[in-house]
Structures are given as C-alpha cells and as structure tokens.
C-alpha cells in the first residue's frame, strides 16, 4: 500500500453560491464515505482559504521565529486535501477523479515517496 495526497489550490474553486457550496460539500463527503467503506481513507480536510493563515515561521539561529506575517506572496494556497492509502497509482487516480467530479474543480495527485516506521527508518512506500 502507498499513501497519496489528493489536493486542490483554493484559486481553482469557481465562484459558488451558498447553495452550490453546500451541494458540492455533500458530494465530496459522499466520496469520503466511499473511501472509508473501501478501507482506503486516511484523513481529509478542506475549506481552507487565505484568511485561515495563523502565522509564518522561519528558522532563526536554530530557533523558530513566529510572526503574523509577511506570508509568502502567492495566489496559490491549499484549499483542501485527502490522504488515501491504496495499493497502486491506478486506485489513487480513481479516487482523485471521484473527488474532482464530485466537487467540480481540479485536483492534484501526489505520492508520498516514503513512510516513516516507528523505528525511524525510512522505507519505500511499496515496502509497507
């Protein structure tokens, strides 16, 4: 099994009415329920936007430095995501496609190249 991240950037979401948001949210949650029933669901969250940024943190002489900004200048930021644990890329593509169709905007698919085991050793995801 391998872990895959299915994610979208907030700017990919079209302008929606409140009713559209509710409808697409219900459709997305239905796909998450399917993932859960299939035993591939790990975690998801969504509804992030630029206003949810809490702080910026940079390394400073071996210590973290927290500030209220400035944040990275970019239009792109994470809008939401799901993590699935599936046997292969075809299955990951299937679930990414199901989410894209359910919510009506693009998704990106990324494979986590390694898993960290309790021993702390890195192992290829295909070892899992």
UniProtKB/TrEMBL annotation:
Q: SUPFAM superfamilies from the xrefs?
A: Dimeric alpha+beta barrel
**Signal sequence segment:** none
Report the InterPro entries cross-referenced here. Answer: Dimeric_a/b-barrel, YCII
Q: From which domain of life does this come?
A: Bacteria
**What region holds the YCII-related domain?**
30-98
Return the similarity comment. Belongs to the YciI family.
Q: Protein name, please?
A: YCII-related domain-containing protein
Name its species: Nostocoides japonicum T1-X7
Q: What is the lineage of its organism?
A: Bacteria, Bacillati, Actinomycetota, Actinomycetes, Micrococcales
